[in-house]
Amino acid sequence: MVSDKPRIVKVLDVREESQTVRSLIFEDDPCSKAKPGQFVMVWILGVDEIPMSISMTKADGLAGFTVRKVGEASAALFDMKVGSLLGVRGPYGKHFTNIIGDVMIVGAGTGLAPLMPLSEVLTQNLSSIYMIIGGKTIDEFVFVDRARATLSKTKSEIIITTEDGSYGTKGLATDAMEPILKERQIDMIYTCGPELMIKKVLEIAQEFSVPIQASLERIMKCGIGICGSCCIGRYRVCKDGPVFDSPKLEEIIDELGSFKRDHSGRVAMI
Amino acid sequence: MVSDKPRIVKVLDVREESQTVRSLIFEDDPCSKAKPGQFVMVWILGVDEIPMSISMTKADGLAGFTVRKVGEASAALFDMKVGSLLGVRGPYGKHFTNIIGDVMIVGAGTGLAPLMPLSEVLTQNLSSIYMIIGGKTIDEFVFVDRARATLSKTKSEIIITTEDGSYGTKGLATDAMEPILKERQIDMIYTCGPELMIKKVLEIAQEFSVPIQASLERIMKCGIGICGSCCIGRYRVCKDGPVFDSPKLEEIIDELGSFKRDHSGRVAMI
Amino acid sequence: MQEPDLSIEISSLKMESPLMLASGILGTSIDLLRRVFEAGAGAVVTKSVGYEQRTGYNNPTIVEVYGGYLNAIGLSNPGIKEFHKELSRSKIDDLPLVVSLFGADPLEFREMISLLDELEVKAYELNISCPHVKGFGAEVCQDSKLVGEIIEAVKTETQKPVFVKLSPNVTDIVHTAKLAEDTGADALTVANTFRAMAIDIETGRPILANKIGGLSGPAIKPIAVRCVYEIYQNVDIPIIGCGGVVDWEDAIEFFLAGATAIQIGTGIAYEGLSVFEKIKQGVKDYLIVKGKRSVREIVGLAHGFR
Amino acid sequence: MQEPDLSIEISSLKMESPLMLASGILGTSIDLLRRVFEAGAGAVVTKSVGYEQRTGYNNPTIVEVYGGYLNAIGLSNPGIKEFHKELSRSKIDDLPLVVSLFGADPLEFREMISLLDELEVKAYELNISCPHVKGFGAEVCQDSKLVGEIIEAVKTETQKPVFVKLSPNVTDIVHTAKLAEDTGADALTVANTFRAMAIDIETGRPILANKIGGLSGPAIKPIAVRCVYEIYQNVDIPIIGCGGVVDWEDAIEFFLAGATAIQIGTGIAYEGLSVFEKIKQGVKDYLIVKGKRSVREIVGLAHGFR
Ligand SMILES: Cc1cc2nc3c(=O)[nH]c(=O)nc-3n(C[C@H](O)[C@H](O)[C@H](O)COP(=O)(O)OP(=O)(O)OC[C@H]3O[C@@H](n4cnc5c(N)ncnc54)[C@H](O)[C@@H]3O)c2cc1C
Ligand SMILES: Cc1cc2nc3c(=O)[nH]c(=O)nc-3n(C[C@H](O)[C@H](O)[C@H](O)COP(=O)(O)OP(=O)(O)OC[C@H]3O[C@@H](n4cnc5c(N)ncnc54)[C@H](O)[C@@H]3O)c2cc1C
Ligand SMILES: Cc1cc2nc3c(=O)[nH]c(=O)nc-3n(C[C@H](O)[C@H](O)[C@H](O)COP(=O)(O)O)c2cc1C
Ligand SMILES: Cc1cc2nc3c(=O)[nH]c(=O)nc-3n(C[C@H](O)[C@H](O)[C@H](O)COP(=O)(O)O)c2cc1C
Ligand code: FES
Ligand code: FES
Questions:
Q1: pTM higher than 0.90 for the full model?
Q2: Which ligand lies nearest to the CA atom of residue D60 in the structure?
Q3: What residues contact residue C18 under an 8 Å CB cut-off, 6+ apart?
Q4: Is domain D8-55+74-192+216-304 given the CATH code 3.20.20.70 in the classification?
Q5: In angstroms, what is the span from residue B218 Cα to ligand 2's centroid?
Q6: Quick one: which of C121, C126, C113, C118 has its CA closest to C96?
Q7: Which helix (H) or strand (E) holds A10?
Q8: Which CATH superfamily is domain B7-92 in?
Q9: ipTM score of the complex?
Q10: CATH top-level class for A102-269?
Q11: Between helices C248-257 and C221-232, what is the axis angle to 10°?
């Protein structure tokens, strides 16, 4: 009888995005219908179950996510081959909204994962996008080619920043925001990446009174809003997020970029 | 959350059909949509739950059944007043089918209960009905006026028989069958009443090669085909019946009118 | 590929299919049992029979709840002598017939079996686990000493396979399972229903005449699967899984947990008698996809994962 | 007609509404607990806290099954000292906050309470019934002597109300209930989840990392209602019903069975946080139709029918 259990899927394709980042493609109807910003709980058999943003959806029932090798679970995912099995449930969570107008996207690392399907919908809707992609150094970049291809469809621009100047402009992604915001009327800023970056993006957005939507991360267990492990302020990242808008972000500003909880629920500094 | 529990209904009307028979009318949407021959499990609060044929349905959500005072449960039903509460679940079971053509109906006592809605549909379908109503003596008859009113709508006929001759023709209901069957082409015989009568109706029908549908009774507990208490041959009266057609009746002819089971499952002669 | 083999053996009981009819569902007459057999059951279990005739409880004896059914039939049965008569006059030699028995003490069980044993009964299932009748059933199952004595008594009385049906209404079902194995049970039926109730909120009344009954159906499946899984790790005799099987996926889950066969009861309320053929087909297809030749190959496969 | 009164008291804990948040659901932070309170809960129970920090089990820790959810979180918690810090820096005086505690022995419970008791905690709930963590929980609940000792120890340490949350994974829950009453419990939370499991049939793997978890949700409601009903007939302290409440009809069923208050956990998965307001409205409407002025008037009304 029907219930929302993990659905076992086969890895159909593995794409090398960088030395530490790969995308896994699989067939799953619900995931292929995910909206930009939604995530999926990925069961790595015998290892763990972790949340992954859906980084790719296709009309023919295919979907994919993009994983950076971090700890045991993500490394196990990273090591999957074509034909490997994994379980997925979802897609879950609030997606990006109001996907139209002249927008700015600020992302870094695998934070770009949910921003890629977003930018694809944006260009379909003929939005102009200023996409700022930041990184520490040149090796870390993913999705740049895909972003260029997508953004070429409208009057859009890509700005690359690195902290060491090895690629694009030297500096932080957020440094690239102000010049644009001073010159142009931006309808919405979308962001995902390290939380300190998100916090900075929020501050700049507030300064310029531009609304923002940010996708956040916290430890997830249930993914459906009952266990409380993903709490941030009065919100659950899995259910009230992962995409949060400006009013909500302002409510949780004390926690944002400051602290999060570990698997035991203990508070830890970010 | 939804499940097929008894629905509590209020008795809206009590109709005196005879000294020992009353009809209770109540509002219940599913019951009002019952097909002729279906029954309902009636929960007499604190007393028992017993099957009752639906003897009346109305488009405005009303339905009714007709009870003869026999033992504790039926007496408790019989004593219900307007405003009394009872529980109903159903309608359950197979209904009469092929409700068209020139037909014969043979009934006795509360056996007429399922035959009344049947005859109403038959007259709507412009069928000619020979309705034979039998009884021991004049006091026992119910529904005669209702039957006359219904049958007046088509070219139909009512034959009343009593064993003591106090009303209609003297004799058994089944005695009245042969003269008609000899003269007329009858498409279907419907019957309900004492099982020995039903058996006799079946035999006569077989003689004249007319198909029959009979509504049977057995002890019921679940009403939905799992407990087995209503077994007759390889059938369950609640689920495979209560309306049985000729092939099935022939299969169970050894049991029909011969024995049934009591509440313990013990076989008892009829 | 060849049709996968669904046949199994539990002790000397050979079954063409690992899907059995659970006790108390349609098991009131041999005719009905035969019909269920013909509908695809590998073996059929009678409604539990006791020493004396019992009328059982008043209606309502059954009520649906979300996810399953409650029943408090009250072990209605014609009594062993009457039941013996009925078996005697029926043709049962070709029927994989398991007789379910309940009783208060070893003596009752022995006498019942000594009466039936000459007949073509293929196996016995001891119902020491009915959750809603005082003095029989679950109360027996909760008394370890009594359970052991009953099984030992029964085993001295018959050569036929003896299945013991366990109550899940205990603190430690593994304990009872081990005890049953140690005292001679040939297989375990896991498990009976859970003590439960439903109250009508309009009138405030408990719906069942007996107020408390046993919960069966999909609601209890995850608990029954757990019971099978835990018992499988602790006993060597075959386990017959029972509780909430409605579709073939449910059946597979029980096999993987360690059940050699499964019983279906309430599933019939949801799917009708075709439930047996439907599940059989589903299990076959599964075995083909998984490249297994026999259902026996998947029993217990859920064990041993780290 | 006047609005019916939904307020209740359990020992010294006054609640505006008899609907509480169950432990372990969203009870990880004071902010979330406050949100649930603002969504209409009469009191909120924290996730169970233990003496030492625990990471809990690996994911998957939660999986949906038909009729409910399985969870094996593994009593993850920051440890009592960290939790004390968190409570200390939060404003909780206006929050009807119940702290759920688990522990292995009376000493652990005493130490935890001695640490927390100075804070504006309104009551304690002793979780001696978690079904899937060895050494705590259900194993405690199954050991009568230990249960009594824990309750007595806790009662000497605090003047605040002490609720004891019972495990339904026992042969006789009434026995534990009486024992808890006798040793000083101010109320009983009835009940925790049922040991259960789900197996993925594609891979053969138990889905939960811990393999076995606790079943919650509608599936267990008829069992939980039965537990409340039976306990109500045998103890005098208030009962907090818990298990499978999703809609107002479920809540009423628990009140009629004898619960003074009810807890909602998994219901939030089905209905979101609005479950509290929805049920409150349904209960109010019911009371109006039944001509009752207070929810207290319907507690236990299912008893006494013949
Ligand atoms: C909504 C959401 C979307 C995400 N999308 C992506 C993505 O597209 N690509 C990607 O590479 N990563 C994504 N992550 C993060 C990813 O889930 C974790 O980084 C990943 O689990 C790494 O954990 P690990 O177990 O391999 O490493 P560990 O060393 O075990 O953990 C490293 C850190 O990862 C985080 N983490 C671990 N387990 C979980 C968990 N169950 N839930 C949330 N965080 C966890 C914790 O912050 C932990 O400290 C997302 C997280 C969330 C909440
Ligand atoms: C499909 C069906 C439709 C029926 N329709 C009607 C009807 O329209 N009007 C009517 O008056 N009667 C009807 N009956 C019969 C009615 O259910 C019983 O006659 C009634 O229960 C009398 O029982 P009692 O408990 O009052 O008497 P008791 O003295 O307790 O029983 C008398 C006899 O009634 C029968 N009976 C008792 N309980 C049940 C039960 N749970 N299920 C079936 N039979 C039972 C038995 O044959 C019993 O021997 C129907 C029965 C069935 C199976
Ligand atoms: C109406 C009904 C009657 C039952 N009667 C018996 C019985 O007589 N003896 C017995 O051992 N189990 C009896 N049971 C329990 C079933 O055999 C089975 O253990 C239980 O229903 C769980 O399986 P299921 O979910 O497939 O129904 C009965 C169950 C139901 C629903
Ligand atoms: C995800 C989850 C976590 C739980 N954690 C705890 C816990 O820490 N302590 C506890 O006493 N009960 C815990 N429980 C049990 C619930 O408090 C409750 O007793 C059970 O879920 C039954 O109620 P429900 O059906 O309304 O959810 C948890 C339940 C769930 C679903
Ligand atoms: S992961 Fe459980 S509430 Fe968000
Ligand atoms: S009444 Fe139960 S099978 Fe017919």
A1: yes
A2: 1
A3: C6, C8, C42, C251, C255, C260, C261, C262, C283, C295
A4: yes
A5: 8
A6: C121
A7: strand A7-16
A8: Translation factors (2.40.30.10)
A9: 0.96
A10: alpha beta
A11: 30
Residue A150 CB–ligand 5 contact under 6 Å: no
Residues of chain B with CATH 2.40.30.10: 7-92
Distance CA A71, CA A78 (A): 10
Distance from the Cα of C35 to chain B's closest Cα (Å) equals 6
- Gap between the Cα atoms of C159 and C114, Å rounded: 11
Please give the positions of D annotated as active site.
Answer: 130
B112 close to ligand 2 (CB < 6 Angstrom): no
Ordered per-residue pLDDT tens for chain D, 306 residues: 679 999 999 999 999 999 999 999 999 999 999 999 999 999 999 999 999 999 999 999 999 999 999 999 999 999 999 999 999 999 999 999 999 999 999 999 999 999 999 999 999 999 997 666 777 766 666 778 899 999 999 999 999 999 999 999 888 999 999 999 999 999 999 999 999 999 999 999 999 999 999 999 999 999 999 999 999 999 999 999 999 999 999 999 999 999 999 999 999 999 999 999 999 999 999 999 999 999 999 999 999 897
Which residues are bridge partners to A269 per DSSP? Answer: A259
Burial A255-266 (b: 16+ CB within 10 A, else e): bbbeebbebbbb
Which stretches of chain D are assigned E, i.e. beta strand?
8-10, 13-15, 19-21, 43-45, 62-65, 68-71, 97-101, 123-127, 162-165, 187-190, 194-196, 213-216, 239-242, 261-264
Residues of C with CB under 8 A from a CB of B: 24-29, 31-32, 34-35, 47, 53-56, 58-66, 69, 71, 73, 76-79, 82, 86, 198, 200, 202-203, 205, 207, 209, 265-266, 268-269, 272
